[in-house]
Amino acid sequence: MRLHGARPFFFFPLLLLFLLPSTAWPGTDGYLSELKETAARRRLQDDRYWDILLFYKPAAGGRGSLIDDPKFFLALDGKRDPGAELSATLDAMFDNSLSPPVRCRFPARFEWLTETLPIDPARLPAPECPVLDNTLRAINPKSASLIFASGHMNAPASMFGHTFLRLDSAYESPLLSYAVNYAATINPKDSGISYAFKGIFGFYPGYYSILPYYEKVREYASMEQRDLWEYRTNLTEAEVRRMVLHVLEMQGIHADYYFLDENCSYDLLFLLEAARPSVTLTDRHKGFFVAPIETLRSVLAEGLIDNVVFRPSTARTIRHKAAGARDREVDLAKALASGNAAPSTIVDGTLPAEGQARALDLAADYTQYLYLKREIPKDAYQGRYLGILSVRSKVGGPPPTSRPLPVPAPPESGHLVSRASLAAGARDGRPFLEAAYRPAYHSLEDPAEGFNDGSQIIFSDAAVRWYPRDEKVRLQRWDLIDIVSFAPRDALFHPVSWKVRTGFATRDFPGSVEALVYELNPGGGFSWKVSPLGIAYFLMETDLAVSGRYDRSFAFGMGGSAGIARQVSDRLGVLARARYVHGVLGDREQGRRFTASMMVPLRLSRNRSLVLEGEHVEGPSVHAGTIRFTWNANF
Amino acid sequence: MKKLLVMVAALSLVVAGSAFAAGGNTGCGLGTLIFKDTQNQSTLVQIVAVTTNGTLGNQTFGISSGTSECVQPKTVVRNERLNEFVQANLDELARDISAGKGETLSTVAELLGVPSAQRDAFNRNLQAHFQQIFPAPGVEFAHVVDTIVSVSNQG
């Protein structure tokens, strides 16, 4: 045993107890050493299940646990020494002076060792664990589901999704299930930058939590307007019980949370492996970035899922109800929700009972939505909401039957998120070849199935271009971040559309010089669904370009863009846009630019697509047309 | 021009958070438990939390949320699970009862042990007594539970 000076000794209250003389169960010294011998002979410390329970993964010079909390280990060097940890666990199991006893604190380890060695229960201390028993009784786990929260319509960064587990009980209603969530506990006092830094580099502790499922439904479906996909696993009751025991021993234990890889989704995979160790989940993910959708695909690939249930967000439900109602009913619902009409007026009118019920049901949902968005104060909400419901109860009858809500393509049907591209094209008659790569995630021209319409999030998309005539290879562009969110406005919802793009791009300078500049280009505006054009949008934009070639080294411009994005069929799309930026500060002359472009993406398969693109740029030192034909492969 | 510039810059930064606003409260009536975990958080913090799946609240092992801060139902047989569920889902329950249908309502029926053959009658009965169950905007959950129990015993 090594004692590290760097670690305060009081972190190890359990170990202190080992130093006290003779606390072991009387007369078990011989049996305990016999068990330790058996464990050593069978190399239980190298057993896959021990790795799963202790989060051991190959590390420099052996194996190490991903858990960073010293409270998780019974041996001083348990994080790096699986054998020492196993031996210390056996010691502790026979130590009846521990509080809480191992059986109550680490029930999964306790049960596995007891069954695997096996240990004669009659010769083992059997402490009472009332808290554990009560918790198990309350959860009453029978089966489990993996829940995928899809992206928020107007927050493309949430497009990565989120996963958590649901423990289903004997109750029929899933609202009475409990959700197991793994998340970083962030410090709201941190600024955005330090938040991002801490999140990515593991400065926030990640904890498991258990909460009623209805709270998660409210959080995702009602507050954040994210659809939930409930994947029912085929885990047996015994497997789920093992998993729950493991979750319970993770209570209050933290691991450093890394947004990109050791994140919410990755750590849930350990729980599924604890349930059914024959599946390989955590070892499928060794990349730099573990996207929740990729973990869902692993779980599907291992055959753990039997079926899926779609739970739409509140906004999707409201839109669907509005689409199934007459215009007058929608107008009435809106007037009721905004307090411009009294609910009683609806029954005085000429609407049939069905129409009244439709308008009132829609009004109730929409009122609550507005309250959740804090557009109505609580006092007004309580009265208005109850007024609508009261009239609704008098109209009577169940909600009028309507067309069932169309279920979108499930998230796993979407393309894979890394993309490599090859392109051939010509700029002003000069032919070129181009190669590009981006690690993540989804762009507007990618196959739309399984993703939100009108949302784009690109991380680090770089393209290298080669002009064979002048034998020049150049970095054409490197988009660090390129986010677009077109959220269409309608009668009930009035979201703002926006974009932000930053990175390096090639621009033209006097004397036919092309050079790389750094760009920062945010914008905000509106979009609408316009039949038959698709999504039509208008954005106000600012554009900052930095380069030594500019007068005063920068050009800052303002302007706008407008365009359409339309999915013509499952395979074919059209994106057309025009953009004008007027120089305002810095090099005002060179800051002026007009661009018009059109893209026609053609989906070949889930992960292969072709894009035909034409672009014209007009500026003080450029009048250039580019045509480009691109082949995209996602993997 | 300057004003427009500021506007565009502000707009493009703020839009991301337009769906999230701050403020909040807790309590025992309509519209009270909804904001539990997001109260008093800045828009920016909420955006980053959503983005990286962080949690803001103190989400630990909430097996039992408890209803102790509220007036308790008088119902003789205490059903803690029912009390908790109704308190936490009061708004959704009110909506479902008024429409005579819904997931929250059928969950309550299950917690009360209403056999599936009698669920339609149970729903209609509660719908007919909506006014009694939710008499005023300030209604608290204890009254709702007590009235549901007494109404469904009569019905």
Overview of the molecule:
The complex is a heterodimer of chains A (635) and B (155). Chain A has four domains: 9-128, no CATH class; 139-311, no CATH class; 325-395, no CATH class; 415-634, Porin. Helices cover 29% and strands 34% of the residues of chain A. Chain A has 17 helices and 23 strands. Chain A has helices at 13-19, 29-41, 48-54, 82-93, 102-105, 107-116, 130-139, 192-201, 213-223, 237-249, 264-275, 292-301, 314-323, 327-337, 345-348, 353-372, 378-395; strands spanning 56-59, 62-65, 143-149, 162-168, 178-185, 204-212, 228-233, 255-257, 305-311, 419-427, 430-438, 440-442, 455-467, 472-485, 488-489, 497-509, 513-530, 534-546, 554-567, 573-586, 593-605, 608-619, 622-634. In chain A, the strands form three sheets. A twelve-stranded antiparallel β-barrel of chain A has the order 10-11-13-14-16-17-18-19-20-21-22-23. Chain A has a seven-stranded antiparallel beta sheet with strand order 8-6-5-4-3-7-9. Chain A has a two-stranded antiparallel sheet with strand order 1-2. With 155 residues, chain B is an all-alpha fold. Chain B folds into two domains: 16-60, no CATH class; 80-154, no CATH class. Chain B is 51% helix and 1% strand. Chain B is globular, with a radius of gyration of 20 Å. Chains A and B meet through helix 7, strand 5, helix 8, strand 6 and helix 9 of A and helix 1, helix 2, strand 1, helix 3 and helix 4 of B.
Compact overview of the structure:
The complex is a heterodimer of chains A (635) and B (155). Chain A has 635 residues and is α+β, with helices and mostly antiparallel strands.
